[in-house]
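From: lab user (bench 3)
To: helpdesk
Subject: output format question, protein + farnesyl diphosphate

Hello, I'm new to running complex predictions and I'm not sure whether the block I got back is the full result or only part of it. Here's what I submitted:
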Amino acid sequence: MHIAIIMDGNGRWAKEKGLPRVEGHRRGALKVEDVTEWSADLGVRYLTLYAFSTENWRRPWEEVSFLFNLFVEFMKMKIRKMKREGVRVRIIGRKEKLPKEVVEVWDWAENETKSNNKIDLIIALNYGGRSEIIDAVNRIISENIEKADEDILRSHLYAPDVPDPDIVVRTSGEMRISNFLLWQIAYSELFFVDKYWPDFEKEDLERILEEFRGRHRRFGGL
Ligand code: FPP
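Helpdesk reply: Thanks, we reran it on our side. This is the complete output you should expect:
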């Protein structure tokens, strides 16, 4: 089971409470820890979370740098616990343009947890679905492969061994994909939750999994 989540609504959560936007992100990061635990408990093998998109650079630098710091602090604070609990941390996205410290923590967190196999926590950071496909195409070209097919393209994605998401969740009531995992979600079931990310609860995840079991997936067949 692979669940991918667009963690949306941190800013609105904070605004409604009269708090600075970044406080919403701080609460959102705490939720990342919870959701990882709940997912592992519920038998989810892969959890992909959209933390920073290639479009998020358009935000004020103050917010962008806060998000990078949050990522770094989160990894430094939580890696021991994740290591103990069998979480394998993986990061997908472009390393280019990211601050040196972010790239160092990215490599370190992956390396520290590489032999874990209870759950893969895949963080999409400086990630864009189109960029991922472009990066794959360019690698195919650089390998002098004359003709691509689906298997070849897939094998050049950022995390080729990870199965496609069964479920994509977006919080905050927005109904968009926003350049998330474009190749991989071709047959995913979509769920939209009318709550801001910091308010997402274990019951929400349980309800989604239950509804998913009731949906009949046909993959284009009958
Ligand atoms: C969307 O809310 C959320 C983001 C752009 C950032 C998500 C990041 C985190 C939850 C923290 C990441 C931390 C780790 C450890 C991976 P928004 O700001 O777009 O909310 P809004 O639409 O209400 O403004």
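A quick orientation on your result: The chain has a mean pLDDT of 97. Let us know if anything else is unclear.
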